[in-house]
């Protein structure tokens, strides 16, 4: 009875405190999400009264090659980004957790790009790729520096570079937190056992920062799939919509072609893809985590 | 007890949600009372006009014009509201109508807008302005013999050139009245690149799909639809009768352009390359004038001109000109309000005082007869106005393209064509297919 009374007391404060957040979450995320799913089964174009048309939008998507191309492009992009961001991010984290010169300065410098908004980053890098690269190429006759963002390939790598540059610092911070929480006695013990630094990293550090992988992989995965600003400001799908990611494709469908319902159907498919991949990824990486 | 706690919590949540609703309703009801107040004022005083327009650039000048008009007509009270310049005017207008405070005068863009808003559009064929409108400017807003809009202004494009570079190369721009003459001039300029100090002849911004997919294609699709936007709007298919000519024009601009064109954008084209004299010609319209003027006033005033946009086999010495937006009057308003709205628009575009404002303060190229060419302040606009009065123009049809088709299908494919990853035949067949699909 006493316990129950205590729970009641906690309960009221508990609910009071989370109510504003919960409420806004319901109003701006949950309810629109459900309404959105409803719209994907209608013929809504933004003006008319929506009429229920069943699965027609989803069936029509089968023949939409541009949409599937954008999904394929996004998947390719996600793979490249996840590998580069995590490998480089972890390397940077290893670097700045050593006792080296200017480590605090380097931490700040690596993290800084993450503070710039995606749209602005895209415009800045657009200038670097198109103008600076071209100027260097003209002066030095290095062929591969010319014509960036004018082909699908350079557009792809342009996007990967910008996104990686922005995300690496963020992921690095996560790795630093986990690396610094490793007890020094474990490292010392491995040293006494005669482990070299690679063995130390592979067999001691790596397993202990497995939870960091779960978090970082999840963040990079969902961010890569949901990327929009950088895509819009860097390439805008040029040339010929071949560097268009899912989100940009949805935006074009909903707001340029004014087919709101079709765009919504695409968004539902995108949600399913991200949800399935993320759940599998979290399940797999969590299994690898070790308890200390 | 715990159930009671949960119940209380739920109650609190509901209460908060409700309070949000109440406050939401509260502000709305005050809005409505305001609206009804102004309505009663309307019946007391003669007429109140609400204008809801999109052109941010003329906001202040239009307010001045309104003040002048109100001084002369004390019985008319005009409220101006402007939404535009990066904000979605169409969405704002829908919200305005849904909220119940419908404006008396608003803007429509072309056949698609007229179809959407038709139940709200008053017939304007009895206005003086409609009678004075230059031939062809009203086709996009005319249905069943009724005129639903009055043109804002004329805009047009062509090949804007640098006079100094042309005279240094010994080319007389007035002699370029055919596509072949243009090709010769381009070749001459290209052979003298070093002496002239230019990087290339053109700057062809294939990245901007509106330049290629809307404006460039418009020149070659206009003859197919007789320059009539309604024909394009109602057409189930597109033939590309002048497709070969279009290919020649793209090839010419692309080949002699600063490379790579697929990533060349508008500001690079206008400001960085043309504005600094690094290219001799660009395909653009009179809207670039303020930008060039802000870079170098002297250059903009004296050293630029516009060549016609040649379509071999159709018109080779003419400019594509059109109306970007129209004024519309709300047919649900009382007759005296509609009358006042028409009177105001007539005054603005056909009275001497209004004409002065339109050309000097709005800096418009007038879409109406009865203006003198000297009153237009920028050289590009003047050239377009003279061409229009001589009939050396052809109409804009891209407002009649299917949604998204011009930019996202044709313009996007042209990017792939200029970087070599798509053949011209594929560009055309895809564009035809997409048009037919959209108009099914």
Folded structure, characterized:
The complex is a heterodimer of chains A (292) and B (440). Chain A contains twelve helices and no strands. Chain A has 292 residues and is mainly α. In chain A, helix 3 (65-96) runs antiparallel to helix 4 (103-111). Chain A is globular. The model of chain A has no long low-confidence stretch (mean pLDDT 88). In chain B, a hairpin with a 2-residue loop joins strand 4 (142-143) and strand 5. Chain B folds into two domains: 44-154 and 323-370, Periplasmic binding protein-like II (D-Maltodextrin-Binding Protein, domain 2, 3-Layer(aba) Sandwich); 156-322 and 390-438, D-Maltodextrin-Binding Protein, domain 2 (3-Layer(aba) Sandwich), CATH 3.40.190. Chain B has helices at 2-44, 59-72, 89-98, 111-117, 128-132, 163-168, 179-191, 193-196, 209-221, 229-234, 243-255, 266-274, 289-295, 297-302, 335-350, 352-361, 379-389, 405-418, 424-438, and strands at residues 47-53, 76-82, 105-108, 142-143, 146-147, 150-151, 155-162, 200-202, 279-285, 304-307, 319-322, 326-329, 393-395. The A-B interface holds A 4-5, 7-8, 11-12, 14-16, 19-20, 22-23, 47, 129-130, 146-152, 236-242, 252, 256-258 and B 1-2, 4-6, 8-9, 12-13, 16-17, 94, 116, 206-207, 259-263, 268, 403-404, 407-408, 412-416, 418-419, 421-422. Chain A: It is a multi-pass membrane protein. Chain A: It is found in: Cell membrane. Chain A: This is Raffinose/stachyose/melibiose transport system permease protein. Chain A: The chain crosses the membrane at residues 12-41, 77-97, 109-136, 156-179, 200-221, 265-284.
């Amino acid at each position: 009875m006493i316990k129950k009374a205590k729970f009641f007391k906690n309960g009221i404060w508990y609910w009071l405190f989370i109510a504003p957040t919960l409420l806004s979450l319901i109003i701006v995320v949950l309810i629109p999400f459900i309404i959105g799913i409803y719209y994907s089964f209608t013929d809504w174009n933004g003006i008319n009264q929506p009429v229920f048309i069943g699965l027609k939008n989803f069936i029509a998507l089968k023949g939409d090659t541009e949409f599937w191309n954008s999904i394929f492009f996004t998947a390719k992009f996600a793979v490249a980004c996840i590998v580069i961001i995590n490998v480089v991010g972890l390397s940077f984290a290893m670097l700045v957790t050593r006792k080296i010169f200017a480590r605090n300065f380097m931490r700040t410098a690596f993290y800084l790009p993450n503070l710039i908004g995606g749209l602005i980053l895209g415009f800045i890098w657009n200038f670097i790729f198109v103008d600076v690269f071209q100027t260097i190429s003209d002066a030095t006759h290095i062929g591969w520096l010319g014509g960036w963002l004018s082909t699908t390939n350079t557009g792809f790598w342009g996007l990967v570079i910008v996104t990686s540059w922005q995300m690496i610092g963020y992921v690095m911070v996560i790795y630093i937190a986990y690396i610094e929480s490793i007890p020094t006695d474990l490292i010392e013990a491995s040293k006494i056992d005669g482990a070299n630094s690679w063995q130390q990293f592979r067999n001691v550090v790596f397993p202990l920062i497995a939870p960091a992988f779960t978090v970082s992989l999840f963040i990079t995965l969902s961010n890569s799939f949901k990327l929009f600003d950088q895509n819009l400001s860097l390439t805008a799908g040029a040339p010929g919509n071949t560097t268009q990611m899912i989100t940009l494709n949805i935006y074009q469908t909903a707001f340029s072609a004014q087919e709101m319902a079709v765009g919504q159907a695409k968004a539902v498919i995108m949600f399913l893809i991200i949800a399935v991949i993320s759940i599998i990824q979290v399940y797999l990486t969590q299994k690898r985590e070790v308890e200390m | 007890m715990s159930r009671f706690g949960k119940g209380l919590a739920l109650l609190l949540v509901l209460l908060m949600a409700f309070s949000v609703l109440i406050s939401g309703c509260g502000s709305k009801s005050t809005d409505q009372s305001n609206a009804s107040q102004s309505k009663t004022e309307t019946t007391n005083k003669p007429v109140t006009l609400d204008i809801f327009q999109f052109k941010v650039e003329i906001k202040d000048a239009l307010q001045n014009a309104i003040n002048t008009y109100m001084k002369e007509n004390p019985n008319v009270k005009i409220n101006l509201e402007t939404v535009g310049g990066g904000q979605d005017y169409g969405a704002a207008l829908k919200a305005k109508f849904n909220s119940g405070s419908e404006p008396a005068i608003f803007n429509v863009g072309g056949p698609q807008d007229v179809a959407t808003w038709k139940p709200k559009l008053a017939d304007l064929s009895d206005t003086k302005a409609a009678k004075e409108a230059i031939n062809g400017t009203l086709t996009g807003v005319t249905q069943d013999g009724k005129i639903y809009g009055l043109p804002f202004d004329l805009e047009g494009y062509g090949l804007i050139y640098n006079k100094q570079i042309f005279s240094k190369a010994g080319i007389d721009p007035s002699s370029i009245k055919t596509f072949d003459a243009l090709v010769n001039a381009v070749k001459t300029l290209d052979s003298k690149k070093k002496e002239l100090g230019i990087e290339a002849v053109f700057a062809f911004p294939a990245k901007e799909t509106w330049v290629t997919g809307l404006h460039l294609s418009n020149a070659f699709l206009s003859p197919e639809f007789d320059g009539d936007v309604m024909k394009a709007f109602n057409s189930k298919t597109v033939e590309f009768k002048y497709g070969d000519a279009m290919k020649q024009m793209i090839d010419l601009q692309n080949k002699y352009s600063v490379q790579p064109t697929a990533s060349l954008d508008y500001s690079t084209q206008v400001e960085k390359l043309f504005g600094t004299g690094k290219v001799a010609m660009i395909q653009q319209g009179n809207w670039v004038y303020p930008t060039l003027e802000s870079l170098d006033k002297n250059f903009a005033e004296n050293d630029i001109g516009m060549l016609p946009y040649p379509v071999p086999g159709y018109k080779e010495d003419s400019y594509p000109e059109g109306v970007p937006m129209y004024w519309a009057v709300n047919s649900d308003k009382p007759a005296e309000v509609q009358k006042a709205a028409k009177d105001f628009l007539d005054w603005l575009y056909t009275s001497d005082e209004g004409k002065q404002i339109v050309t000097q303060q709005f800096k418009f190229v007038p879409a109406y007869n009865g203006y003198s060419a000297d009153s237009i302040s920028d050289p590009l606009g003047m050239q377009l106005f003279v061409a229009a009065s001589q009939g050396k123009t052809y109409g804009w049809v891209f407002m009649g393209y299917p949604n998204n088709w011009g930019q996202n299908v044709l313009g996007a494919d042209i990017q792939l064509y200029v970087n070599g990853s798509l053949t011209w035949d594929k560009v055309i067949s895809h564009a035809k297919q997409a048009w037919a699909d959209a108009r099914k």
